[in-house]
């Protein structure tokens, strides 16, 4: 029986020391670490401003508020993502309008966007899914032509590069997330990225109970705010993780390359697609299965692997078919065929920085055995 997890954070003594050092001070919130984490993240991404938040989801919510998206507005987005990228649109009473995905990059199909634009459309929210950059040049063109805001959910793509530029920097605002399965973690945490000072200031104020950015009094609140702040321990953890980002991305690439090599010749498996304009930071390692392992057979592979102590997953179930969305918006099977088809054939394999070659061999060997029996 193996014990190979789907994902695992990579925490060294440096991170442990940084967090304990904070705990020895009396500043556990709104101190230096939070400022430093924001500054280093803005530098890394190549944007002017970064606002730390207590999750990627709260970062997305702040962006919606800062752009003034609300009731009666429509936001064009992808159904093949984690639920938060569509939920953030609902938080403010706007409507997510889904557009099917490209079968290779698994990102929003830019050629299908313009058909869905109406007078109510206010923004496009694209996701760099599985760390593969969306087609940002095309997205920017459409957004500009129709005077729409562009939002980048880059929660899965810290360190990914599109045409020489870092993901997180492409929209009017973007977001990273630092849940423990992401490239770097702060436990819970997120970051808003933008080159627009007004958006940054609004996000900063709303994350901090609607206080003024500068010279405000502690108990003076100038707008509706939230407590979406990132604390000092989490910020210190994030700073140390970001210092190791090159090492982390190298490790992830090494694991992905090993998988690519060892899976290449298995019949019925397609290794992850990477577009020629993109370098990806490997959030997850997801293979696509062909028709012979579609749907319930894929689910059986996951079950059999679990029996052998190897954790796999079926990222993603399309958002429009989530029970809540089906009930609320009457979506049905067939509405977004490529996203639906993809979701029946994706298989996420164990993937983390320190996954050893022996463990990768065990994953591949067990996969081969199982698919021979199916
Ligand atoms: C992880 C993730 C988020 C949300 O991040 P949290 O920090 O868990 O709130 C949002 N969008 C996508 C695409 C994600 O993968």
Portion in beta strands: 5-15%
- The name of the CATH superfamily of the largest domain reads Type I PLP-dependent aspartate aminotransferase-like (Major domain)
- The coarse silhouette is globular
CATH topology of the largest domain, by name, is Aspartate Aminotransferase, domain 2
Low-confidence stretches: none
So, CATH architecture of the largest domain?
3-Layer(aba) Sandwich
Q: Tell me, what is the CATH class of the largest domain? A: Alpha Beta
Largest sheet: 7 strands, mixed
Are any ligands bound, and if so which? pyridoxal-5'-phosphate
Explain this structure.
With 374 residues, this protein is α/β, with parallel strands linked by helices. Helix content is 38%, strand content 14%. It has 12 helices and 13 strands. The strands form 3 sheets. It has a 7-stranded mixed sheet, sandwiched between helices. Strand 4 (121-127), helix 5 (136-145) and strand 5 (149-153) form a beta-alpha-beta unit. Helix 3 (56-66) packs across helix 4 and helix 3 packs across helix 6 (197-207). The longest helix is centred in the C-terminal third of the chain and has 19 residues, at 245-263. The chain starts with 12 loop residues before the first helix and ends with a helix. The structure holds pyridoxal-5'-phosphate. The site of pyridoxal-5'-phosphate has 14 residues, from helix 3 and helix 4.
